[in-house]
Amino acid sequence: MLCCCSFLKMGRADNPTQLMTAVHKQHAKDPNFPMPIIEKIEEFLGNEEVFSHPEDHALLIQEMKIEAALITNNSPYAEVRSVVDNHDDPAMPVSTLRAWFIGTIFACAISFINSFFDVRMPSIYVISTVPQLLAYPAGKFLERVLPDVGFTMFGVRHSLNPGPFNRKEHMLITIMSNVAKSTPYTNYIVWIQYLPQYFNQSWAINIGYQLLIALSTNFIGYGLAGLCRRFLVYPAYCVWPSSLVTIALNSAFHDVSTETAVVPGPFKSIWRISRLKYFCWAFGLMFVYFWFPNYIFSALSYFSWMTWIAPDNADLAIITGGQTGLGLNPIPTFDWNIVTFNVDPLMVPFFSTFNYFLGAFFSMFVVIAIYYTNAFNTAYLPINSNKPFDHFGNRYKVLTIVDDNGIFDSAKYQAYSPPFLSAGNIVVYMFFFAMYSATVTYGYLYHRHEIAMGLRDVWSSIKTKKTSENTQKVDLDVHNRLMKAYKEVPEWWYMITLAISVAIGMIGIACWPTNTTPAVVLYGIALCLVFVVPIGIINAMTGVQVTLNVLAEFIGGVWVEGNAIAMCFFKSYGYVTCAHALSFSADLKLAHYLKIPPRHTFWAQMVPTLVSTFISVAVLQYQVNIDKICTADAPFRFLCPGVNTFFTAAVFWGTVGPRKIWGVGGQYASTLVGFPIGVLLVLIFYYLNKQWPKNAVFRNAHPVVMMAGALGWAPYNLAYIWPAVPVSAFSWLFLKKRFLGFWAKVCPPLSF
Q1: Which of 5, 51, 81, 552 has a CA that sits 20 to 30 A from residue 681's CA?
Q2: Would residue 41 count as lying in a domain?
Q3: What domain range is 42 assigned to?
């Protein structure tokens, strides 16, 4: 508020009309932006009397000046203001030797662990929160023991100990760990190519081949993320809720001055505890409680108490069961891992959580209708399984329909069986199709102006290297203005990264007998380019991810039917590069919020990715030669569940191909109705929103998120979705509205 008062005193808000016009254009359809403020802005801009007789509307004009000051000096979103500072210290050390030392060690360690245990059942996976927690004591230790000695390079002094370990160093280490945690997706291709129980292509052991395709898929995402900064990073409405949780933990360690603030809480309570102490208490209690639903009394995890009423009632188990049923249960679990399985109810906006639930709830009736009418012969199968079945009701054996070289054998297919899907799985595929068409339609109708301005700005930046109209408008955001203190990464850096990645990917595919055209790289990237911006905007605003895996498999399977490996490459370049681009964009937003210089962020992403790729490929080289790996007799539980699933999908979509299942005369061709349904639903909600723009229901309805919720079946169900709704309502509708300071102190750290 002090910044806003000084802003008003300096007279910088004397003419709020231009600012409010820009704010209204950016946020009028933004469900995260407070509707009462939008209504006030519309009243201000739409009333000519305000400008002709300002003395009669002094109160409204003063309110607009205050709003102009608030929006200009801080984020318009309370959840961002609660964890992100609206000031910066450009002199704070960032890319220090100790940060690179700690970050590189953590990146190597997390890459090795995740790669080595990826094929174990169950797998062991280290999330980025672990290095973020460990980085603080490691940084403070080096702060104590290292001397202040160093060297000067290009006019900049690099010291072993430049002073106190700070938040920017901490976040740089976190970003380095973030980019190193994922195993290259192409490793799965190598697994199914090389091992004799799959396609038995011994040449796939070549380390040059493995490195080229791994480096290509890993680095293409950076090129796309960099080119999408003006769409997914700079705009204030791209909040990225998951990033706020990471920043909250960072703030808990470093914000000593604000952490001791006294805030009122529910039931007239007063909270003096710091965010760090609260996190430690919550972490300890959650660690103790974890053992009860997961090991000591597992009924707390799947609390299917309704089936206890009539244990022999099959229909009751089908509808209300939490493990094999549809999970229609008002109190389905006491396991926090299940509550937060799909969305984080404490930090993801309530409208997003509720839309997600609505999609799952209404699609449940489609599942029930399909099952109980025996449509597609689903009544003979489990209602909610994600496994394909044969006509005997047994799990589909994909190896039965291929020859010794892994090529589709039509005679074997005719002698065996077409694949059959459960009712839940059919609905999942139908709404996948609906979600893809809805995403493109939604992006055009709701965000075409922002996308057009972003495209103009990218072109202007490449052509003239000057700030364009869009950048000026985005500068309403205080964080963009603060980042002007640092040199930006030029577009051509990212374009070169993209070009090199494409080139080495095409070389890797062309120089070895993959039976795949190198053009698959370009086709996959083309698919990604169509979706990356609308998907990214939806993810950044709602916290809900739209993945392209099914669409990439569908298009790839139609294009290269009978060639499983070619389909896998198309999937890698169409789906995985898009997922990487969004993940890297989220990291860029982290750096943006923390005011880390963009060029430091660039190298903090590139170098650990390069190192982790070499480590992952080295681990792969060792593991593929382990005797009996990926078999029932594998040592160390290296049973390769992920590899087996990947192989099944490769044969199902690539070898058999979607034409036999979804083509003309295919058993599930009617589910393609999802494509027009997706377009129609978006058009309906868009029309309702245009007709009644002030209606809170239509403004907060998000058809794409609804359809994402409809994907929550097979093998999951409502028991994994509904529990988040009351928690989100309590967090966002009660705590945040009535006790904002308390909500800002306790909810972000509790999200871990």
Answers
A1: 552
A2: yes
A3: 2-73
